[in-house]
User: What shape does this take?
Amino acid sequence: MFSNNKITTLFGIKYPIIQGGMIWCSGWKLASAVSNAGGLGLIGGGSMPPDLFREHIQKCKAATNKPFGVNIPLLYPYSEEQVKIVIEEKVPIVFTSAGNPKKYTSILKEHGIKVVHVTANLKFALKSQEAGVDAIVAEGFEAGGHNGREETTTMVLIPKIAKEINIPLIAAGGIATGSGMLAAMVLGADGVQMGSRFVASVEASAHDGFKQKVVEAQEGDTKLQLKQLVSVRLLDNEFSDRITKMQLSGASTEELSEALGRGRAKLGMFDGDLNEGELEIGQVATLIDEVKPVGEIVEEIVDEFISRQSVFSL
Assistant: This one.
C-alpha cells in the first residue's frame, strides 16, 4: 500500500508513520519499538546529555535492525556534540528542530545522513528547503510541547506548505489515528509524525502517572503557554494555572522565566510531579483512551487508515 510513498522510500520503512522525538518520553525502548513495528522511531535528544545520548543510540542499534533516527533540538548547548555523536555512531536519520536549519544540514548530509527539519510556518519551511533538508515536518498549533507562535492549525498549515515546496512533507499536530493520518495525507502530506499517541504507550519513558493524565485528558485540558518565552502546550495543572494567572496579570518575561525555573519538564513528564511539573502534550490527547504497546498502536492506526481510505474510494 505504501510502496510508492515518498516517506517510506526516503527512510526505508514500511509505513509513513514517524514517532515524535519528545523530551523525557522518547528513549531507545520507544524508538526501537516504533521502528520494529514498521514506522520510524526517534530518540529524543533534547533531554539527554551527550554520554546518555550515545548510550541510547547504541542500545537502539542493538534492539532493532530497522532504520531509526534522532531528534536534536538546536536550542540546547550540547547540540553540536550530539551532531558529532550521530556522525560517529552512523545514525542514518536526523530530525532537527527549534533553530536554524542551515546550522548542521550540510555537514550531516556530507556524511550520508538524511536530514529533516521541523517548522510551524511557511517561511521556515522554505528556508529549510533552501538549506537542503530531505524533508520537512510541518507542525500545527494542536501539537504538544514547543509550538509555533502563529497558532496555525494543521489543517491550514499542511495545504499551505504543500503548495510551495517540492520535497516530502510530514504533517504533525493533532494526529493520533488512522483517520487523522488519512486526512493529513489528503491535505498534501506524504506522511505523519505522532507524538502524543506514543507518549501513551507501554514503551515510552514517560512516568506512568503522566501517561494516565494523558488518557484522562478532555477537551480544553491543554493550553498554549509561555509565548513570551518559548511557546509550549501543556496539560492544565497547578503550575500551568499559576502561569495563566501571571500572564493575565501582565507578568514580565523575567518573572515568567523565574516562575518556570529549571527542570520543570523533567519534573512533570519523567519524575511524575503532576502538580508542579510541565506536562507537555497535544490537544489530541482527548482522543487517546488507553496506554498500549507500540505494536498495537501502529497496527490500529494502519488498519483504520486502510478502512477509512476504502470508504472514500467507493
